[in-house]
Design goal:
Number of strands: 9
Radius of gyration: 19 Å
Largest sheet: 5 strands, parallel
Strand order of the largest sheet: 7-6-5-8-9
């Protein structure tokens, strides 16, 4: 049985296989075809962090696959009252066929997966957001930006930056990350990515200069400066991230046909300008829709792998 907690657990071939399956499922639903590969299956969805895209895409996705989703917030489960994760994992996994968990510490996901008798999917943790990265790469494929791309990530060395490290190091493309000195990526995760890069041939470049990172990029991406749980740091981060807004001047340093990605929600005028976000280069809504299709692909792939 496989879980989907981080892209580090998957080979290049498996990642491409999931992407291919997601493309098939997307083409089917666009043609009005519903093959129902997860008919009568149930997805338990645990949300310890709020969400718009993750909830809607998973709930709609399991429904389109012929199954049902059960939404569980902290107010709906005994986890919110302090029940041990291992107890909830054993009980919930005896009643459903898949579990998606959106949580804080990545260790909570790992513990849940250890005691779960069904596949567990990372809907987001403080360390990784693998579903978003597969949706991003699916968008890159659709835009013809998947062949030896140069990707520039501008901003916080957070779960999105970590996930870009995993994807680039597994698939073998160039990733340039620019972050302020106090907001670098995790050294432990960077070391893991570098070990994968030795096999795949990926190039990983880190700097504190957004201009240096973005020059010649095929894909430009960023994330909010203050993630959920960091709201009290918002004003300090605005000061620390001065010069890191992806505006038209900065975007102009990328290739002329470069695309812009953002996992959303976006804060216009902070990490990205209104002009870039609404430009012809922006693929943010195509990218957001692809969360639905890639998550369907992951759910079907995990079910078939059991």
């Amino acid at each position: 049985m496989r879980h989907f907690l981080t892209l580090a657990d998957f080979s290049k071939e498996e990642i491409l296989e999931i992407l291919s399956l997601a493309k098939i499922l997307k083409n089917e639903v666009k043609s009005g075809i519903y093959s129902n590969p997860l008919a009568h299956k149930t997805l338990g969805m645990i949300f310890e962090k709020n969400s718009t895209r993750t909830r809607v895409s998973f709930e709609a996705g399991i429904y389109q696959l012929g199954g049902n989703g059960i939404f569980l917030s902290n107010n709906d489960t005994q986890l919110g009252r302090g029940e041990p994760i291992k107890d909830t994992a054993r009980v919930l996994s005896s009643m459903v066929d898949l579990v998606m968990m959106r949580t804080h510490q990545h260790s909570r996901l790992e513990e849940f997966a250890e005691y779960s008798s069904v596949p567990v999917i990372n809907g987001l943790s403080d360390d990784f957001h693998p579903m978003q990265l597969l949706a991003d790469f699916m968008t890159m494929q659709e835009c013809g930006k998947d062949k030896n791309p140069i990707v520039a990530y501008i901003g916080d060395g957070n779960n999105m930056a970590h996930s870009w490290l995993m994807l680039a190091s597994k698939l073998g493309f160039t990733l340039k990350i620019a972050s302020p000195k106090d907001y670098k990526v995790s050294k432990k995760i960077l070391q893991k990515a570098e070990s994968f890069a030795k096999i795949s041939g990926a190039k990983i470049l880190l700097s504190e200069s957004p201009k240096e990172a973005i020059i010649g990029a095929d894909v430009v991406t960023t994330d909010t400066w203050a993630s959920m749980g960091q709201e009290e740091q918002k004003e300090k981060r605005k000061q620390d991230f001065k010069g890191y807004c992806v505006d038209s001047t900065l975007m102009g340093l990328a290739k002329n046909d470069a695309i812009f990605l953002h996992c959303l929600p976006a804060y216009r005028g902070q990490e990205v300008s209104e002009e870039v976000l609404e430009s012809k280069q922006s693929r943010i809504f195509q990218e957001a829709e692809n969360r639905l299709h890639i998550q369907k692909g992951v759910m079907v792939w995990l079910h078939q792998s059991r």
